[in-house]
Each structure stands twice: as C-alpha cells, then as structure tokens.
Amino acid sequence: MLTRERKDHILAILQRDGRVVAKAVSQQLGLSEDTIRRDLRELAAEGRLQRVHGGALPASAAIASLVRREEVSAAGKVAIGQAAACMVRDGQVVMLDGGTTALQVARHLAPKLRVTVITHSPTVAAELGRHPTIEVELIGGRLFKHSMVSIGAAAVETIARIRADIFFMGVTGIHPELGLTTGDAEEAAIKRAMSRQSAETVVLASREKLGTASPFQIMPLEEVDGLVVEADLPREVLQPYLKLGLSVVRG
C-alpha cells in the first residue's frame, strides 16, 4: 500500500470512529507500528490530526488563524454567544476569554446590564467599550497575536488578585478523555488561572471543537461546571459530557 493510500485509510478511520489506534491499524494492514506512527507524525504536521499516546484524535479546526476561525460555525457561535450572555446577572464580576465565540458573548450582553467584565482580549474590551453600563477591566501582558489576547507572567499576576462570579472560557479542543485543550502552552496557563479565580467556569463549545484535541491541556472536564452548545447538536454527541456531570446549555 502506498503512503498516500495509508494516510487516506487512517483519515477514513478517524472520521468514522473519532480516533485511530496505531497498533490496530498496523495489524489490519500487516505493517509495522513504526510505519503507522510515521504516517501519524506526518499527518499531524499537516494539521490533519492530533497525535496522542497510542494513536490520534481529530485535530481542531479552531487552531487556524483568527480570520479563518471567524468563518467556522459562524451562526453557531452567535447562538452560543446569545445563550451565554443570558446567563449573566446584574452585579456580577465576569471573566470573559478571548476568541471569536467570546466576542459574540460580549456583543449580546443585555443593553441595561450592570456588571464588571474582566478580559485579557483587547478585541473583546473594544466591543464592550460600546456598552453603556458595563465596566471593563483589561488585563495587560504580552500580546499573543494568534488569539489577540494577553499572556505571560504579568497577566497571571493580575488575574491572581481577582475574584469573579463566572468565567466564560474559549478552547480549541473538547474531548471526554483528554479534557479541554488549546494550541499554546502560555494561553492554556492563562485560562487555568482565570478558571481558578472564578466561582463557576463555563466553556463555549461550538461544534467543531467537540471530540477534538489540541497540543496543550488546559484542564480535565471534571474541573469545569458546564458547556454552552448549539441547539441542534444530537444528544448522542453530548452524552459523554452529560455522563461527566456537566450542565449543558443549548443556544
């Protein structure tokens, strides 16, 4: 079997089963595990999958550029943003992550809402600057241009002095076994810090992120309180997350 044929076969298994086990593929094709692992490495380098111990999982589309991410699940992100915005109550201190879905949360906060929103995203802060009654606190630090958020020691130090009621977290991958993941280690550390300082953490979970993984773990799913998802997601897609005891809000 040619290399391209092997890779197509691996991707077909990934699409069908949601995961690839290197040993099983090697036995099925009568090839060495080293050969299959090499194929997985090359496919991972192409962004076609995410390697994990013993095999691979689907790679998240959410690790693309910011412009490209704005095009992915655009209508679903609006619905998720609306649903998440409805969870916010007057008087709360809200931490709001960066990213395209978090921006939709900012855009849909009620016009007369009186809250304090703390964010490390200049884009989200600029959007909230148009809101007449919301106080905005912008966390500084080194700008991570891929996601347009502040990261680094200065940001972590500022976050450590805050106590928030709720944190709306953006991620690039959500998987029942691997938990919440993203594409950058420092960005993952900022998300953990924001979650630690919040009484409740809710994940903004557009459909392209479910069942996928990115290189850096943020935290296990057991450490968050719930997900906000699109209304039309089949229950069987959500079942693994419901089994973990997460609350699920449909947008």
From TrEMBL:
Which Pfam families does the record match to this protein?
DeoRC, HTH_DeoR
Q: Name one GO molecular function term.
A: DNA binding
**Residue span(s) of domain HTH deoR-type:** 3-58
Q: Which UniProt keywords apply?
A: DNA-binding, Repressor, Transcription, Transcription regulation
- What top-level branch of life does the organism fall under? Bacteria
DNA-binding among the record's keywords?
yes
User: Per its record, how is this protein called by name?
Assistant: DeoR/GlpR family DNA-binding transcription regulator
Organism of provenance = Teichococcus vastitatis
Lineage of the organism: Bacteria, Pseudomonadati, Pseudomonadota, Alphaproteobacteria, Acetobacterales
